[in-house]
């Protein structure tokens, strides 16, 4: 996909996840909206994956360490064809496989996540296995910024640098809000980029809601041989919905009927604007 198509896809994914959360009356809305662009870049442009062969030994691996923000991931996996899109209607319902955290009974999910601080350590093991087995696959691990308060994250960061895992990419959804408020009020993180660099990682700081910047960064990996890469993706919690952006309450707020209608209208307007811009450019 080209950048414009990726931007359009991200809008559709946001629409899908809002409908899914509204229908199930549960979900983590704000973080799913902030990480949508990251996942769109990975799943539609960057990662080597095959919905028809989800266990391909040469596939790239993705670990959603911030497992509570799974809604965008479910919508993308369904859209890519890992499971029927109709199953999104069962999200968080009795007997469903699409629970509120990644579940490896679902094709495309590598491991169950949700207990914060575990994902990067598992990703280090996967990346190390690839190196020792002579495999070319890469491992991408999406973490939350609130998750950076977990000591296990930093143990894994040391190991990733020690083993020179340039096939490992950590991504922080740096929206600066967690369930109880600002990350800097709960447990100050800044200067977070300098901390990761001091642990031996190559750090790329960018706008995590800019698909062009994300694709450029992901395509450059490994930018430094023998070093793991950390993408500091500065995002907006609730991105794409004007009345949800940077509002802590939307961490796990379920949109009302009125809010859903308003949100979908905003997203539709953005989609129409993208389409109009594309038509103008194509006509010179």
Description of the molecule:
This protein is of the alpha/beta class. The chain has one domain: Rossmann fold. The chain has 9 helices and 7 strands, in the order H-H-E-H-H-E-H-E-E-E-H-H-E-H-E-H. A 5-stranded parallel beta sheet has the order 1-2-3-7-6, sandwiched between helices. Strands 4-5 form a two-stranded antiparallel ribbon. Helix 1 packs antiparallel against helix 9. It is globular, with a radius of gyration of 18 Å. The model has no long low-confidence stretch (mean pLDDT 95).
C-alpha-based Rg, rounded: 18 Å
**General shape:** globular
Query: Helix content range of the residues, please?
Result: 40-55%
CATH fold node name:
Rossmann fold
Number of helices: 9
Strand coverage percent: 5-15%
Strand and helix map with partners:
Blueprint: H1 3-24, H2 29-46, E1 61-64, H3 71-80, H4 119-133, E2 139-144, H5 151-162, E3 168-174, E4 177-178, E5 181-182, H6 183-186, H7 192-198, E6 202-207, H8 211-219, E7 229-234, H9 257-282
Parallel strand pairs: 1-2, 2-3, 3-7, 6-7
Antiparallel strand pairs: 4-5
Helix pairs in contact: 1-2, 1-3, 1-9, 2-3, 2-8, 4-5
């Amino acid at each position: 996909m080209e950048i414009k198509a990726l931007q359009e896809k991200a809008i559709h994914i946001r629409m899908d996840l809002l409908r899914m959360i509204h229908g199930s009356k549960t979900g983590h809305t704000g973080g799913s909206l902030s990480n949508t662009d990251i996942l769109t870049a990975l799943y539609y442009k960057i990662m080597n994956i095959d919905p028809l062969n989800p266990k391909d030994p040469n596939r790239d691996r993705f670990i959603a360490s911030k497992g509570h923000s799974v809604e965008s991931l479910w919508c993308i996996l369904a859209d890519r064809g890992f499971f029927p899109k109709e199953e999104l209607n069962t999200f968080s319902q009795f007997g469903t496989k699409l629970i509120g955290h990644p579940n490896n009974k679902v094709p495309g999910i590598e491991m169950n996540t949700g207990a914060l601080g575990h994902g990067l350590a598992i990703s280090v093991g996967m990346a190390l296995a690839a190196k020792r087995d002579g495999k070319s696959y890469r491992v991408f691990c999406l973490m939350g910024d609130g998750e950076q308060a977990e000591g296990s994250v930093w143990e894994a960061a040391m190991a990733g640098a020690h083993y020179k895992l340039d096939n490992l990419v950590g991504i922080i959804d740096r929206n600066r809000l967690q369930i109880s408020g600002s990350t800097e009020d709960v447990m100050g993180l800044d200067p977070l980029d300098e901390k990761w660099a001091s642990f031996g990682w190559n750090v790329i700081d960018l706008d995590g809601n800019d698909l062009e910047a994300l694709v450029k960064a992901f395509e450059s990996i490994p930018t430094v041989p023998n070093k793991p890469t950390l993408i500091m993706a500065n995002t907006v919690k609730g991105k794409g919905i004007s009345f949800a952006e940077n509002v802590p309450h939307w961490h796990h707020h379920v949109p009302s009927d009125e809010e859903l209608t308003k949100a979908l209208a905003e997203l539709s307007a953005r989609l129409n604007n993208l389409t109009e811009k594309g038509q103008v450019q194509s006509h010179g």
